Amino acid sequence: MQRTDESKVNRTIFWPLLVVGVGLILLLNGLGVFPPALADLVSRAWPVLPVLVGLALLLDRVAPLRRWAPWLALGVSAGLLIAIVGAAYANRSGQPREDQTVAFTEAIDAGVNRLRVVIVGLDNAVEISPAVGETRQITAEFVGSEDSQVTGVLAPAEDGTLTFTLQETRLADFPPRLEGVGRGRIRVELPAGLPIELDFTQGGGTTSLNLLGLDVARLKVDMAGGDLLLSLPNRSLEQRGEVSVGGNLTVFVPQDLGLQFAASGAAPNFAEGAYLLDPSSGVYIARRYDSAPQQTDLSLSVGGTLRLE
To answer: Which residues pair with 220 in a beta bridge?
Structure first.
């Protein structure tokens, strides 16, 4: 008798609390109290209510569960809602977005003798390549979510160095707006015949760095996730290049370039006999390194597979 009374009390308390809670959420949403992203989720989540009611009615018919039927139904419904929302965000994150296009074309003055390029992206498909022709300009384009804020800044220095910074940031809303989640793309064309220092940072996505034909003096790549296709320049770097990739890395080495590299995180794959391992230093050295007209030294850190072509 006491258990039956407790069951009735639970049901008596639960439904009024549910109605009050739902009413308050709808009221606050209607008044614009919630940030846009959360308001969007609230407007999408209402179908969970009939699921909650249906589960509560079903569980109430099971004698051992009757006492806590409403609360069990609430927990299951909340878990289901969280799983569906998570799946929706995961599905959106891999889809390309084309909500906005931001383009930059920056001419390079004749007095500039070195170009420093800094690119900071989040989760994009990126392509960096030499510009067509002999134009002394930088061309960059971002296509992606309207929730991304993209800036391009030129900063000349007295020593003749010009720094171009392309940076992507996202609105700080939590949770992020579902319609704004997705993958963008970045395309950058760099001028040939000008020493370039390239500093590239990316959160994820697939990146293609085609540096063949560019006079790359320094190279630093830091990708927390995603895959990288790297075509090395056929000129020597001024200092050891640093490449860190969370996913897979494929390096294309020009025929006239001698390469030596240190690898961590993954055993390198290459044509048999193409590279020899120096046991004392742990560095792989190309057989034709000494005879090549240009030499380059790299430090490679890879989370996935490493292949040299």
So the answer is: 199, 242
Give the domain ranges of the chain.
2-93, 100-308
What is the H or E stretch that residue 2 is in? Answer: helix 2-30
**258 C-beta neighbours (distance < 10 Å), count:** 20
* Cβ burial, residue 290 (10 Å; 0-12/13-18/19+): exposed
Q: Which residues contact 119 (CB under 8 A, 6 or more apart)?
A: 126, 128, 165, 166, 167, 186, 188, 198, 199, 200, 201, 202
* Residue closest to 306 by CA, chosen among 251, 240, 234: 251
Q: Which of 41-55, 134-148, 233-247, 260-274 has the lowest mean pLDDT?
A: 41-55
| Distance of alpha carbon 33 from alpha carbon 37, whole angstroms | 11
The helix, strand and coil proportions of the chain, stated in percent and rounded to the nearest 5, come to 30, 40, 30
pTM score of the predicted model: 0.78
> Facing residues of 207 across strands?
126, 228
Spatial separation of the C-alpha atoms in residues 203 and 302, rounded to whole Å: 14
What sign for the dihedral angle of Cα 210, 296, 308, 203? negative
Q: What is the pLDDT of residues 167-189, one digit of tens each?
A: 999 876 666 777 777 789 999 99
Calculate the CA 144 to chain-centre distance. Answer: 12
Q: What is the 3-state secondary structure (H, E, C) of 162-208?
A: EEEEEEEEECCCCCCCHHHCCEEEEEEEECCCCCEEEEEEEEECEEE
Residue (of 120, 163, 164, 116) closest to 142 by Cα position: 120
